Amino acid sequence: MTATGTALRLGLRANIAQFTLLVAVNALVGGLLGTERTVLPLLGEQEFDLSAYTAALTYILAFGATKAAVNFVAGTLSDRFGRKPVLIAGWLFALPVPLMLIWAPSWGWVIAANVLLGVNQGLAWSTTVIMKIDLVGPHRRGLAMGLNEAAGYLAVATTAMATGALATEFGLRPAPFLLGAAYIAVGLGLSLFFVQETRGHARHEATLDGAVDSGHSGSLSTWRIAGLVSWREPALSSASQVGMVNNLNDGLAWGLFPLLFAAAGLSLPQIGVLVALYPAIWGLGQVLTGPLSDHIGRKPLIVSGMLTQAVALGLVATADTFPAWAAATVLLGAGTAMVYPTLLATIGDVAHPSWRARAVGVYRLWRDGGFAAGAVFAGVIADLTSIRGATWAVAALTAASGLLAARRMYETRPGG
């Protein structure tokens, strides 16, 4: 029973108001991330004179390592204290970020701001994922994750394009980051005054018939869950390795693609369009791929999505014109859309409601560790060879990840 005496109900229709509100909140979380996508790589090169790629990617390393660790903590905190307090804490950590980026006198300030941004994204994005899974129940997880991730990454895309336009008109600072400050104010207000706690829905689902997963139901320690998600359980650990490689790709695209495009002589508005195309297709595509995974299964989309990304990265490495790069980034976004909500749905399929939030946290630890791994891997190879050489290396790794999932993963869709 809720505080008002109404019985808890699972399902998208039964919880449409809260679900829609959480979609909006996650769009704001994604929008804050999007304020950096176009501007920061160019800021590092033009205002802080960072010539080495490994040095330029330190902010992504800081962001990814922090977000990965906080994802792990977010799941445990959500189980212990509830979802809403963790969401609010995420917004509070974001408050200094735009001001630090606007006033940064050195690259160290940018790195510090991205540590706080990593905390924000780890707490806030993780919690909106968990809350939506709580609300919709077992049968519409793919749709729920598709809508959640679509909102976040469409906001990344539109904000990346908007900040490119703002930077063209007003300069790299402060205008693009003022947009992020507005996102934080609205997101914190909605989370404080309108978002409702959903932990009770997960507890309710755990009492229903059929809420028993593949042999791992009941109370488990956090370290036991970490072992299952990291290496012991084939579907969960496959999702973790695919997620990590997927975000390694994103770290490459975020940190190095704008520099590749700029070196080819593209204008700032053109770079903004290319930077936005990838997350835009990624975001829009998830509206289709999330529910599609509820019908055809998770594994086919995960495997084909990684192989599609590998092909797209190869095209990025060979292209040298705006139309060719646009086609490649559209294909990269489509491949990512196949994978992203489907991996989260897989975690929701296998993990029991009593430890699902912690399983999501461990999965997101590995997935967002890909940002940090990508910053190091792509940066070192780019310094040794070139950005194109790093892109080829990541393409090969992406193909290997998809083939490994094809061999090791089993289908997890309920009734599949």
What is the topological layout?
Layout: H1 16-37, H2 39-46, H3 53-56, H4 58-81, H5 83-94, H6 97-103, H7 107-136, H8 141-170, H9 175-193, H10 199-206, H11 222-232, H12 234-255, H13 257-263, H14 268-296, H15 299-318, H16 322-350, H17 356-384, H18 387-408
Helix pairs in contact: 1-7, 1-8, 1-9, 4-5, 4-7, 4-17, 5-7, 5-9, 6-7, 6-9, 7-8, 7-10, 7-17, 8-9, 8-14, 8-16, 11-12, 11-17, 12-16, 12-17, 12-18, 13-14, 14-16, 15-16, 15-18, 17-18
Task: Provide a descriptive summary of the structure in words.
With 416 residues, the protein is mainly α. The protein has one domain (16-200, 220-408): MFS general substrate transporter like domains (Growth Hormone, Chain: A). The chain contains 18 helices and no strands. Helix 7 runs antiparallel to helix 8 (141-170). The protein is globular and about 60 Å long. The relative contact order is 0.17. It is found in: Cell membrane. InterPro entries: MFS (IPR011701), MFS_dom (IPR020846), MFS_trans_sf (IPR036259), MFS_Transporters (IPR050171), Sugar_transporter_CS (IPR005829). This is MFS transporter. Pfam families: MFS_1 (PF07690). Keywords: Cell membrane, Membrane, Transmembrane, Transmembrane helix, Transport.
